[in-house]
Amino acid sequence: MKLSMSQLTKNQLERVNSVLLVVLVLFSSLFFSSASAAKYTEDEVKAVYLFNFTSFISWPKDSFNNTQEAFTYCSLGGENSVTKVLQEILLGEKVAGRIVLLKNITKLSDISNCQVLYLDKRKNQDIALILQTLKNSPTLTVSDAKGFAMQGGAVELSTKNEHIKLLINVAKVKATQLSISSKLLRIADLINAQNDDGDEPW
Amino acid sequence: MNKYTVTSSHKKTRHNWLALAMCGSLYSAVLSADTDSLQRLKSFSLEDLADVEVSITGKSQQQLRDIPAAVYVLSEKQIRNSGATNIPDLLRLVPGLHVAQIDANKWVVSSRGFSSRITNKLLVMIDGRSIYSPLFGGVMWDQQNIMLEDIEKIEVVRGPGGAVWGSNAVNGVVNIISKHTDDTQGSLVSTLIGTEKNIISLRQGGMLSADTSYRIYAKHREHEESVFLNGSNATDDWRDTQLGFRIDWQASKDKQLTLQGDMYQGRLSERITVPSLATATFTDLLDDTINIQGANLMAKWEQTNNDGSTHHFQTYIDHVEREQWIVSEQRDIFDIDYQYSPGQIGQHNFMFGTGYRYVQDKLPDGNVSLGQVRIYTPSKKSDHLFNAFIQDDITLLENRLWLTLGSKVESNQYTGLEFQPSIRLRWKPAERQLAWASISRSVRTPSRAESDGLILFDILSAGPPPVGLVVQGSTDLKSEVLLAYELGYRHEVSKTFIFDATVFYQDYDNLVSFEMTGVVPSPIAPINVLSNTMNLANQLEASTYGLETSAAWSPHEKFNLLASYSYLKVEVSPKNSSLDALSELQEDLSPQHQFNITSNYQLQDNLKLSLIGRYVGELSDAAAYTELDSTIQWQVNNKLNLTLVARNLLDQSHPEATPAVFPTAKTEVEREFYIKLDWAFN
Questions:
Q1: How far apart are the CA of A39 and the nearest CA of chain B, in angstroms?
Q2: More confident residue, B513 or B234
Q3: Do B38 and A88 touch (CB under 8 A)?
Q4: In B236-264, which positions are buried (b, 16+ CB within 10 angstroms) versus exposed (e)?
Q5: What share of chain A is helix, strand, coil (3-state, %, to 5)?
Q6: Contacts of residue A187 in chain B, CB cutoff 8 Å?
Q7: Cβ(B614)–Cβ(B92) under 8 Å?
Q8: Average pLDDT over residues B638-644
């Protein structure tokens, strides 16, 4: 009984296999152009965004004490799953000729000298207090917490329909003397922009 | 406040056993990013990055991988790709489940055998609220009309879940989990127009304050008739309307309150065969109208403390009214549950739970002069159920081997105390692999009808006096008992290929049998019939064994395949003293073989094609069939989504199940097409 069951199963599995093969052959031509691709996690995409910002945003010179000073990412509340990936991405990278550091900080008093401050929503931090402490110092504040940009944060990473969207608070970025390239603005939704064209009619 | 709290807290509802209790080390296995693919992602342009589809279920999938049970989660994306418009059709995608449509408003959904309109061994819940009917057992699928757009996922466990979920979770547990209101902000207007049905859904989401979000929705469905075997219209059209709301309040960092409720009303038609003294065949056809209405309200409180301990508290009330030729029912349920987990303490991860349920019903007798003989003694009944459970997940070898022990103890007024223990061992031979084994006991308690009902099913001869076939319930019924042995293996071979297999052997005792007691004077006082009475007793035994496998393969970001196959063998036998002659019929109620292949193609950035092929093996009363469903989704712009669906493409119409017990006329499921327009705006 057991034997016949497993044989049957094997036959059926073979049928599945042959169907899979047919489907594969039919559709492989559509996709042969690129190698097999994995699906990315939210954390990975967020981390790559964090890295890419350095190419599309420039920091004022006076945000560094000297020319040797490292470009510093800070993660308040300690390590999180996004900065874990970021750590890997930053290996061997330089930003505008500077070496790059990723600091996991726990105290609010340590947030000066951060070029990018990432606040992970899972850490549930007091965002209002953090933004108030930073005032308009030249730090790019980034978070995936909902309503972050609305609250006065610079860049909010939000997940919509399985895509990571950027929401940029343009006024805030300007106030912190950072300049953002139009390329970045083009793919983002904007708030507090002078001519709000984030919302296209359909 | 954020989705992650909520996602995990959904689990911490009664699904705690999935997330917390059954595996203490959920987050320990955080996937380190695959270096090659990460380098590739790094080279993406901004536009490409914005287009990358991320796997939101990543974390829960990881958790899933570590659960020592036959678990399957139907994701939001699968729900969208399926083109299904109701919950039973969605469940067709779950490996191993058997779904069959009897007519336009009746379905069979079962796990591991014993498929019937009254599938009394499968427990189904919506957000932790049981929709299992205590009257006959099983689920009245026509009373479930939540917006499919609001479902975050459907978690399915095949096999016994009694140790945590309690009675009636014998062959499986289905929990339909709705989205957090954070994820349904803005407005949605969804209209569906098709050859078999029209559906309109409206939803509005917003913020009541900075930490409180809400949604309200309304949904109306109108279904056309299916067809009789001769092609004429079956009188089974129906319509229903449901309204509902949900509010989520993030009280503080780790405290959350959810309040939700629904109300509905529906009117359905059916043509059924009824016993009659007025015709030569002693049966008559009756066009019956079913009226349903109900409402429910639920509150949940979840709290995680700094030491990692969690409290979960939930309570609900549920009111159901149903008027139908074969049954008339009014029922109120009050349920309250509390769960506590102190977090990991050394090698132990404990979980405790306790609950109480009050059920009160009113079951008026049928109109005896119309042959509508159904009598419940007593006609009003209330039942108090108490339960408690304890579970311990023990780490035997760090990151390698765990043992989960647990049991539920339940007290009900039908059978008294019930114990449902389980023991589960899980072993991680390597990262991303899990092998598990379990032995568990689960019970199904007698339904109200089985205990207190008396129903005239048929007239056997005209007499005088006429002789009727009567089924009489028994208050002496015991619980049906299952002892199940399962083995499972899950392997995430690579990021693009995942494989899962379970084999099981299930041994049932005390299954309900129909015992002929011979012709006796009628127990139905008002009419003068002799009764050929069948009494219910626990005189059947059964064993089932089978295999359930599934695989997911995504060779390319624009193409993926999901395939599943399941095998099932059921053997039912009466005990020596039994006079049951119907037991063999139960062996082929569920198909032996089922296949499912789903393929999804991202044709263009905004155009997606999904094809679903389904094979369902032969039943005792329906031939095997293969069907194909196709869905095309076109994201016209960021507000408008157009979906074209064709279902059952391979046949003009096909039968899936034969109605049994008060049979409605046999119908076939038709090929159908529909177009769905979703307009989302702020």
A1: 6
A2: B513
A3: yes
A4: bbbebbbbbbbbbbbeeebebbbebbbeb
A5: 40, 25, 35
A6: 46-47, 49-50
A7: yes
A8: 92
The CA-based angle B611-B614-B615, given to 5 degrees, is 155
| Per-residue pLDDT tens over the stretch A136-159 | 889 999 998 888 888 889 999 988
- CA B143 from centroid of its chain's CA atoms: 13
pLDDT surpasses 50 at B233: yes
Residue type, B217: Y
CATH code of A42-191, in short, is 3.40.50
Q: What percent of chain B has pLDDT over 90?
A: 59
A164 touches chain B (CB under 8 A): yes
What is residue B69's three-state secondary structure? coil
Q: Which pLDDT does position B58 carry in this prediction? A: 37
| Interface membership of B545 toward A (CB under 8 Å) | yes
| Cα-only R_g, chain A | 23
- A 90-119 residues with CB < 8 A to B: none
Burial of B656 (0-12, 13-18, 19+ CB in 10 A): buried
Residue B50 to residue A187, Cβ atoms within 8 A: yes
Q: Comparing A194 with B557, which gets the higher pLDDT? A: B557
Token pair listed for B95: 């490996």
For residue B285, what are its two tokens?
């056809």
Ranges in chain A, pLDDT < 70: 1-39, 161, 193-202
Gap between the Cα atoms of B164 and B316, Å rounded: 19
At B63 the pLDDT is 65
Residue-range domains of chain B with CATH = 3-681 (2.40.170.20)
Judge: A81–B210 Cβ closer than 8 Å, yes or no.
no
Amino acid, res. B437? A
- For residue B612, what are the β-bridge partners? B598, B629
Give the tens place of pLDDT for each residue, B245-280. Answer: 999 998 886 789 999 999 999 999 998 888 877 788
C-alpha span between B46 and A198 (Å, rounded)? 17
Q: What angle do CA B654, B660, B666 make, to 5 degrees?
A: 35
If you measure CA to CA, which chain B residue comes closest to A90? B42
Between A and B, how many residue pairs show a Cβ–Cβ distance under 8 A? 156
The complex scores an ipTM of 0.73
Q: What is the mean pLDDT of residues B224-239?
A: 85
Interface test with A, best of B37, B179, B253, B556 (most A CBs within 10 A): B556
Residue in A17, A4, A14 with CA at minimum distance from that of residue B592: A4
pLDDT for A191: 83
CA distance B43 to chain A (A): 9
Report the sign of the C-alpha dihedral through residues A33, A36, A38, A44, in that order: negative
Domain spans, chain A:
1-37, 42-191
Closest CA to B635 of A184, A144, A163: A163
**Listed residue (B192, B306, B180, B185) closest to B246, CA to CA:** B180
Give me B498's structure tokens.
């995942």
Q: What is the pLDDT of residues B79-133, one digit of tens each?
A: 999 999 999 999 999 999 999 999 888 999 999 999 988 899 999 999 999 999 9
The alpha-carbon gap from A2 to the nearest alpha carbon of chain B, in Å, equals 10
* Rounded alpha-carbon distances, angstroms, from residue B666 to A159, B230, B289, B304: 47, 10, 17, 53
A151 CB neighbour count, 10 Å cutoff: 18
Residue-wise pLDDT for B9-32, tens only, equals 333 333 333 433 333 222 222 233
- Nearest residue to B156 (alpha-carbon basis) of B84, B79, B71: B71
Interface test with B, best of A161, A181, A199 (most B CBs within 10 A): A161
pLDDT of residue B91: 97
Task: Return all residues near B311 (Cβ < 8 A) that are at least 6 apart.
Answer: B301, B302, B303, B305, B338, B339, B340
